[in-house]
Design a protein that fits this description.
Elements (H helix, E strand, L loop, with lengths): L1 H22 L18 E6 L19 H12 L3 E6 L5 H6 L5 E2 L7 H4 L2 E3 L4 E3 L1 E6 L15 E5 L3 H8 L4 E5 L2 H9 L5 E5 H10 L5 E3 L7 E3 L2 E3 L3 H16 L2 H10 L5
Parallel strand pairs: 1-2, 1-3, 7-8, 7-9
Antiparallel strand pairs: 3-12, 4-12, 5-11, 6-9, 6-10
Arginine binds next to loops.
Length: about 260
């Protein structure tokens, strides 16, 4: 009975809004139903689950693991909704956002001007950058400039792909996942992998990778942000508010420590 009453009120309200919009003389900016005050009950999240320790699958656990996964679940909870995470290819994430298949993307995604033309970003939540991984016996590659004339694997659609293409005389192989890149390196199909520093470090230190090493030089300084549909400033605000809250109440630090140890950046 109560539910029916609410329905009636909502119906009356939307009728009024529609009628009102109708009087506007076709300004054409009536906002969609997504701008309805409260956050969606389920927050549809897109991520490319191939990027430990940010997002990855652990066979022994049914939920996706990683820093981003914990963070977005905490953000959703803070907003009174629940994160429902979809695993998509990295280069399909922004299209999925544009097609409204997902509400947000969290995927170790670097905030940059190119992407800002198509999506909104939350405040930065992690400082990152790009480094190289080479075979352990590699002598001729120490610096990024040494990549001239070399074959380099990168994940398709990433800032690594973009940056490596700027170095003259590099043969770039764009593969679907960082794991594919590392496999190609071990198999001798490429001379180096360029990828995000924390992911390279995790690969070398935590997964017990052998025969490869990460080099210390950083090609870029980048910051990760949560991407949101270009027309959804309201959700952007909610995400930022939730993120701020998690910084204030210590939850962010807890999640950070869980995945990166006690040292804070
Ligand atoms: N930070 C890089 C970028 O934004 C790489 C991100 C890759 N993320 C992933 N889940 N595979 O382009």
């Amino acid at each position: 009975m109560k539910f029916k009453k609410i329905l009636a009120v909502v119906a009356a309200m939307s009728f009024a809004v529609a009628a009102f919009a109708g009087c506007g003389g076709g300004a054409g900016t009536s906002s969609s139903s997504s701008g309805s005050g409260s956050a969606p009950k389920t927050l549809k999240v897109g991520s490319s689950i191939d990027f430990a320790p940010f997002e990855f699958q652990d066979e022994s656990q049914k939920e996706y693991q990683g820093f981003d996964m914990d963070l977005i679940r905490a953000i959703a909870k803070e907003m009174g909704s629940e994160a429902e995470i979809q695993n998509l290819g990295f280069d399909g994430l922004i299209p999925a956002l544009q097609g409204k298949q997902v509400d947000v993307v969290i995927s170790g995604m670097t905030i940059n001007d190119d992407r800002k033309q198509n999506v909104l970003f939350s405040d930065p939540y992690y400082d990152s950058g790009l480094t190289m991984v080479v075979r352990e016996d590699e002598q001729s590659i120490q610096k990024f400039q040494d990549l001239k004339g070399k074959k380099v694997a990168v994940q398709i659609g990433t800032t690594s792909a973009e940056e490596v293409k700027k170095i003259e005389g590099v043969e770039v192989k764009e593969l679907n996942t960082p794991a594919d890149c590392f496999m190609e390196l071990k198999a001798g199909g490429v001379d180096a992998v360029v990828n995000d520093r924390p992911v390279n470090d995790y690969y070398i230190q935590k997964t017990g990778a052998t025969g490869v090493k990460a080099l210390p030089e950083k090609l870029t300084a980048e910051q990760y942000g949560i991407a949101i549909g270009k027309d959804n400033t309201e959700l952007q605000q909610k995400i930022n508010d939730a993120l701020k809250k998690l910084h204030e109440n210590g939850e962010y630090d807890k999640i950070f420590a869980k995945w990166f140890g006690e040292q804070k950046k």
